[in-house]
Design goal:
Distance between the termini: 35 Å
Largest sheet: none
Strand content: under 5%
Shape: elongated
Number of strands: 0
Radius of gyration: 21 Å
Low-confidence stretches: none
Order of helices and strands: HHHHHHHHHHH
Length: 208
């Protein structure tokens, strides 16, 4: 990306000048700044951050569930929480947390709102249903990509997610139509070719 000459020129800059450039660049890239702060200054571990974030996340879901207005607004709030998870992962590089937090987000969301979602017409609930099924696919793909030794840490929550989806007729309809076998979640049996399978489903126009 950068030539050897450019790298050498940067290295030869006076320390004060390099410091100014670094701080200027960090102001324009807050994700990088936050990550460096975590790596260089923060005294909390990745696990500490994950535990604290999970508590805040579940409280947020409780809060917007209490002031429920429509499934559309419920989805909007859920996407904000999902964005918060992405930010946590960017800062901490918490691959384990990316999986566990996404599962817990969906489980808590559905535990509190499954009946509300199911009470809607399919047309009104469709976008929310697609979001949940697409997110379930993402979770399965992420699990398949990590060390198998970690799988047992997710098995119980994964089964809960499968049961919650199975108890919602609209979610089940969406899962079947878009190629998600809920038994993969309930039984913890993720296909070896899940990445290729998911790609093929997307190419056929599903999960949209």
């Amino acid at each position: 990306m950068f030539t050897k000459e450019f790298k050498k020129a940067i290295q030869e800059l006076p320390s004060a000048e390099k410091d100014k450039l670094i701080f200027r660049l960090l102001k324009r890239d807050l994700d990088l700044a936050n990550r460096l702060h975590f790596e260089l200054v923060d005294t909390e571990t990745v696990e500490d951050k994950r535990i604290a974030f999970e508590k805040l996340m579940l409280n947020k879901i409780n809060h917007f569930t209490e002031r429920f207005y429509s499934v559309g607004y419920l989805l909007q709030d859920t996407r904000y929480v999902s964005g918060d998870i992405s930010e946590h992962v960017k800062i901490t590089k918490d691959k384990f947390g990316e999986i566990s937090l996404n599962i817990k987000m969906l489980n808590h969301l559905l535990l509190l709102n499954n009946e509300r979602i199911q009470s809607q017409s399919y047309a009104k609930a469709y976008t929310m249903c697609i979001y949940v099924i697409a997110r379930a696919f993402k979770i399965l793909i992420l699990i398949k990509a990590i060390d198998e030794d970690y799988f047992l840490d997710f098995k119980e929550d994964l089964e809960k997610l499968g049961v919650l989806i199975g108890n919602n007729s609209l979610l089940m309809k969406t899962a079947i139509h878009n190629g998600l076998d809920v038994n993969w979640l309930i039984n913890g049996e993720i296909p070896e070719n899940i990445v290729a399978y998911h790609k093929n489903i997307r190419q056929q126009g599903y999960l949209k």
